[in-house]
Specification:
Elements lengths: L1 H20 L16 H5 L7 H19 L4 H20 L12 H4 L1 H24 L5 H26 L2
Helix pairs in contact: 1-3, 3-4, 4-6, 6-7
Length: about 170
């Protein structure tokens, strides 16, 4: 369990640094920004304490908010993503699998991992940009930002997972 916490801490810091220093400055087609830090919420093990999932997701979101000048936005949506992961992992994982099953391509398989991460990423991006805009007057721009950001984020998540699964 101590190794797991060290690995989670390293992932926490590396995703924070990558998002703040690099990915916040990437604007694909002028609308999409990869929000890779949602990967932190996706990769928790099934038996990880829910309170720790929620607190760590909130803290990562809070630090992203501090460095990105989006007060409360990332922290609230990251907390929702952590909550969704706890329940979706139980729905998607095979019933006869181990209790400490980690969410990865290696353990879940490609299709189940893409389903889990795609749903959480789409939920995250839709809520993130809905709260950021706080109106639906320009709904096409909101949909474009959500869709392009979700696709960019999924591409990065699958790239990282393909490297990690080897």
């Amino acid at each position: 369990m101590k190794i797991e916490l060290v690995n989670r801490l390293v992932m926490f810091v590396s995703l924070l640094v990558a998002q703040v220093l690099i990915l916040n400055h990437v604007h694909f087609l002028g609308v999409g920004t990869p929000l890779l830090y949602v990967y932190f919420a996706i990769t928790f093990r099934r038996n990880f304490p829910k309170w720790l999932v929620l607190v760590s997701c909130f803290l990562l979101g809070l630090l992203i908010d501090i460095f990105s000048n989006t007060p409360g936005l990332a922290s609230s949506v990251m907390t929702i993503a952590g909550l969704a992961q706890c329940y979706l992992m139980n729905l998607i994982a095979p019933r006869d699998s181990a209790e400490d099953l980690a969410a990865s391509i290696k353990t879940l398989g490609f299709s189940k991992f893409v389903t889990l991460s795609g749903f959480i990423t789409a939920l995250y991006c839709i809520l993130f940009f809905a709260i950021e805009a706080f109106n639906f007057f320009d709904i096409l721009m909101w949909l474009a930002r959500s869709l392009v950001s979700a696709v960019l984020t999924m591409v990065l998540i699958l790239a990282i997972e393909s490297v990690r699964s080897r």
